[in-house]
């Protein structure tokens, strides 16, 4: 009898401890998140901060050197220092840089059990999949199909693609343009590729933006307002959206689809400190402004920035992996999780059919 | 040719421009758009180019530290936006706020340049470049409160691009806009520029302006004549900085956005090219050089874009653009160097 | 050796040289004289192959040198042919030492390195170069360390270094000297001429261009006189006959040069012991290359005080020091009141002004009009010729008054120009100096420091400028302090002459004293000592 009691007490104690360990918000491990600095890339940085707030005490957030290109050595040391801390079980790198893979190789050599998720880094994919548990990135090329399709849905008859030589020299961007062209032809839209002054060759983006603000009215006068304008360079979006509010043409998606790119400057959104980072609220504000300008249904983008989405999503995935709930990564396991984080559908596709842990995503859109 | 101040860069760029106008007519690019835009561009860049004049005249050289003045102007504009001032009043307030800032910054900048006589241009370049990172830091902590100016996600620090539409975008551009045969003529904008040019012209007729020119030509002579050389040079720098601050105000209202952070970094170079295209050679600089230079330079830029798109030869236009901007600065430096050599 | 036949050269519509004929034999010192603008510089430019000649359309006529017809494309070719030139404006590299400058492009190199790297890249034997340089300087009678930086030297020393460099050329056949003594005092000029004679004795032909007729007469074998681009006469000293020596010859020459007789300006000295305007006590000035050391001197009201010394012994430092252009120490009392801060503005307030010795680089705005130059200082410092204005800061010059003053001054000073709006840079040296004087007169100073007023100016203009200085003293009661190396001129117009030696006041002499006493004083020797 006494023995039975003792045994049952033991069982209760163990299960209680187990419950404390695995069930509650307090975890016995930590997760390292590596992002660029705030000024280098805001979304990733804020995304990481948001996860840290969601799981207090679990997230160890470090930021890479401001001028990463000059200080890669420092970056590698920083990442390795995470591997030296025994309680860190997963590292998430959301950097959008190349040259980080060597650091991951060293981490894996030292800590084979370490879960590493990149979202994204830009090294050789075939090498990456050997060392990294899950590689995530935006599906830049497939957007060549999704954007014109969306534009068509929004009523566009012409699709204008603004870019410049140094961008078109990049394989991914050139491929996307070709895909867009093909898609437009398939959908029966007129595709127009236009060049702006090159912001990478000296005078900065000023001449490019000046050109855009002069050229867009000309093109709309020529092709009419059922035209979708797409620019490949981030600074362009301010001008394109501002012009869209005036000329009522279609802006289906920015180069980096997020409510926080282009819209705040062009619409002069007044986002209070309380609402900062609250995307539902921001999206509502944009919709309201668009309606005020008479552009309802003419503007669209992804509801959350991918950079903001990735750290949180990757953390959720990493937690599941550490806790053993997620053995195999695949579209069917990732998609529901992503939907939960983003609030809209997220479409996953393998980067190459033979790579089982490199996924590219495209998000569902929000229309204003 | 030399008698009329026409040098190789002018010949080159005029030929290039004429060629492009012919091409534009051939491609049926609407000329009324081009002319309207050219007029706007003349002023929006012209004031910045004008700001180089006092320093050139005082023999300090090209103000490659233009970002210093630009930052002063941006600060003035930000204050105006923060107070939610609108329309022409907002713009005027922005200009007004930027003047004391420009005087303050110009004074410090002048103190630096007065210590490095003979190496002003390289020092100015360096000051311009190093001032920007410093200001980047400032922008992230600037105590402004208008949410339309702050980062959308964190709600702290300034956005890189601030929209001005509900404040004073195009306030000056649209002042007394007249349309003649499809060409929109921004009369108010042009008058503003003309007024600035006139003021500067008159300034160089005053005693103080004359002293400035004399310091530029022969410092020792001016000193012997009782001119306080350091003071005159400092004022030349302050004046340049002040006009640059006004210049960015005009620029920003025309562009419709305030661009912070790294945006001012490279702005000195197109301005320098423009004044050199106009035929300025060191202290032999006239207001006419500013007007002609800015017009030729900016119009070439303006017209080359659509033509390149029509011709499907974007790279060629890009190469020409680079050649013009940089080759003209190089030519001017070589020419200046050559002249000095002849004298010595 | 050198023969010019019907040489003509025109710049646009202006004919600078009209069929000039000239012959120089080896070992001959050939003088070339003429007033400013008579074509001397053009002739030298042709001979030394300056690019400006080719760029402006070349010349016509024959230029035979060593029996070959020459048309140099650049100075390098002339140098290669054996024609060396000493420039009026110095062509020294300021950052190199004296020795390096003298041996420039003619350096001694180590033979082994020549074999190893070739002529162009051979290692320079600095010790040998120094020795060469000091040997040459010694031969010229110059006491100068070959290690000094050329940029730190006084103008006179630069001139010697320039000359030494030409002497150092091994295959020098013809030496062109353009106003070699313009910047030198009498004593230095004598040394230079001795050196020139020495090199001529070795068989080098010399073409000697100078404004100083005494020098030309004393050292040249033959003299060509240019007037308005044409040869007026060619006088051989030896054939000139008995009565054509010394002073008579000078008179003939100057007559030929200007086409009329030049009257020498003269004024009898007045002894003064009235009001002491300036009292200097242990006044030192750190002017590089021309420093002044512990000067004690009183300057009386209304006098013309001459200050002379050999070059580099401090004669130009006095004015520059009082004006505060260089750091100075010691006491300056003005009308009995001590002056604490020395700077141009303070001095202008106390009615003191200075005409600098280097007109082009300190005394004029070459790109501005005659009118602006004449009125600039008065407008800036005196608020003269200024319109009344209600707005502070914004004050405009009164153009009408400026024009009046400028045209009056042009007439009074007989300035040869197209109009008062002509750029000063286009004027000849003499006319430029007149503009400087007009500028000084507009300031109406009580005390005027004048440095080297006749430097590089032809005889006619020279006398006129001296007479204007005298007039300024007589009519306006100015106190003049004239520093100059031209003893003869100082003696003619000054009341007293202070002689400096090694930066210290050696003696104050009267203009009546003999040349010999002056020469001794300039060299720091007391007559009693001999």
Q: Could you please describe the fold and organization of this structure?
A:
The complex is a heterotrimer of chains A (368), B (344) and C (530). Chain A is 47% helix and 16% strand. Chain A has helices at residues 2-22, 42-54, 72-83, 101-110, 125-131, 143-153, 165-168, 171-187, 206-223, 236-247, 263-267, 279-292, 306-322, 331-342; strands at residues 30-35, 59-63, 88-93, 115-118, 134-138, 158-163, 190-195, 227-231, 300-301, 346-350, 358-363, 366-367. In chain A, the strands form 3 sheets. A 7-stranded mixed sheet of chain A has the order 2-1-3-4-5-11-10, sandwiched between helices. In chain A, strands 7-6-8 form a 3-stranded parallel sheet. Residues 18-25 of chain A have low confidence and may be disordered. Chain B is built from 13 helices and 4 strands. In chain B, helix 4 (66-82) runs antiparallel to helix 5, helix 4 (66-82) packs parallel to helix 6 (120-141) and helix 12 packs antiparallel against helix 13. Chain B is globular. Residues 337-344 of chain B have low confidence and may be disordered. Chain C folds into 2 domains: 2-82 and 171-258, P-loop containing nucleotide triphosphate hydrolases (Rossmann fold); 276-529, Rossmann fold, CATH 3.40.50. In chain C, the strands form 4 sheets. Chain C has a 6-stranded mixed sheet, with helices on both faces. A 6-stranded mixed sheet of chain C has the order 16-17-18-13-19-20. A 4-stranded antiparallel sheet of chain C has the order 2-1-4-5, covered by helices on one side. In chain C, strand 1 and strand 2 form a beta hairpin. The model of chain C has no long low-confidence stretch (mean pLDDT 82). The chains are: A alpha/beta (368), B mainly alpha (344), C alpha/beta (530).
> Which CATH class of the domain at 28-132 and 307-342 in chain A applies here?
Alpha Beta
Q: What is the global morphology of chain A?
A: globular
What is the count of DSSP helices of chain B, taking H or I runs of 4+ residues?
13
How many domains comprise the coordinates of chain B?
Answer: 1
- Strand numbers in spatial order across the main sheet of chain A: 2-1-3-4-5-11-10
Major beta sheet of chain B, specifics? Answer: 2 strands, antiparallel
Name the shape of chain B in a single word: globular
Q: What's the total helix number of chain A?
A: 14
Number of strands of chain A: 12
**Helix content estimate of chain B:** 55-70%
**CATH class wording of chain B:** Mainly Alpha
Low-confidence stretches of chain A: 18-25
